[in-house]
């Protein structure tokens, strides 16, 4: 079961912003989308959600065409959740309880189902149940963002789109938020579509990476292949290597040897680099 696009193109205000996109998004994967500003990343995500009513090409959901309205325009896909940049700015209800229950009510979930979901979703995002009666206005920025994300998770999306969800967060808060989302994704075998400019986060959390440039899909592969082998794709898109990979290449250059690593994740690279660097120091002492 998957989400599949075949030669999809989108024009907005007379300009082609996506061109001949063909891809398959497999269920249960964390798929990151990278590319420079204006590459078409957010437009692609909106097509997946069903927020772009008219496009050329074919988009099938679990091998079935997406339903449209009476004029044939695509409608928003109910099973897909969307967390926009700075989601806390979209909070509009007077209490956290009302904010969390609004979405499920609109989707027709029963009151009992909603009530059962409240405590688990708060626990998932690291918030206490006592917060339900609070006004969002009195919450910290980090709490507001977690409430906004919880309001999407409580609808139990099969695919979750995250459009720069860590924008404006410090490194520790960013890591905590992404780790929480990764645990939710793995525990529920959900699909995540993660748009980010942070190459380090992409390398750390992704199962697959899609590279966009000028409305085209330049590459779609696992992060190890992209960041360790197919770096020409990154160069064409004007994107940097993740900092741990940059460090790896520097140590390889200084040590004069190739360092084999199992992945492009930070810990895997640092462990191998440390061993090589320590061995180099011992050799110099001799």
Automatic annotation (TrEMBL):
Residues 3-239 form the ABC transporter domain. The keyword Plastid does not apply. Keywords: ATP-binding, Cell membrane, Membrane, Nucleotide-binding, Translocase, Transport. It is a peripheral membrane protein. SMART domains: AAA (SM00382). It is found in: Cell membrane. Its main location: membrane. Belongs to the ABC transporter superfamily. This is Energy-coupling factor transporter ATP-binding protein EcfA2. It comes from Paenibacillus vini.
């Amino acid at each position: 079961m998957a989400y599949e696009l075949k030669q999809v193109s989108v024009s907005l205000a007379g300009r082609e912003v996506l061109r001949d996109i063909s891809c398959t998004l497999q269920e249960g994967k964390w798929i990151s989308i990278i590319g420079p500003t204006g590459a078409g990343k957010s437009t692609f995500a909106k097509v997946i959600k069903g927020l772009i009513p008219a496009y050329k090409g074919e988009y099938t959901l679990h091998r079935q065409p997406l339903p449209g309205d009476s004029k044939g325009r695509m409608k928003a896909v109910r099973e897909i959740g969307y967390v926009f940049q700075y989601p806390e700015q979209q909070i509009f209800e007077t209490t956290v309880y009302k904010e969390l229950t609004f979405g499920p009510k609109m989707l027709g979930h029963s009151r009992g189902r909603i009530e059962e979901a409240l405590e688990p979703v708060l626990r998932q995002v690291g918030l206490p149940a006592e917060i339900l009666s609070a006004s969002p206005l009195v919450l910290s920025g980090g709490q507001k963002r977690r409430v906004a994300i919880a309001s999407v998770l409580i609808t139990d999306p099969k695919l979750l789109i995250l459009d720069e969800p860590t924008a404006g967060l410090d490194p520790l808060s960013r890591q905590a938020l992404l780790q929480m989302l990764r645990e939710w994704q793995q525990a529920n075998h959900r699909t995540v579509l993660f748009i980010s400019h942070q190459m380090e986060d992409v390398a750390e959390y992704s199962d697959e990476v899609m590279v966009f440039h000028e409305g085209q899909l330049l590459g779609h592969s696992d992060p190890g292949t992209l960041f360790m082998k197919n770096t020409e794709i990154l160069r064409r898109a004007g994107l940097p290597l993740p900092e741990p990979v940059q460090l790896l290449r520097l140590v390889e250059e200084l040590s004069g040897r190739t360092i084999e690593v199992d992945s492009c994740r930070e810990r895997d690279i640092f462990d191998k680099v440390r061993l090589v660097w320590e061995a180099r120091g011992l050799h110099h002492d001799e």
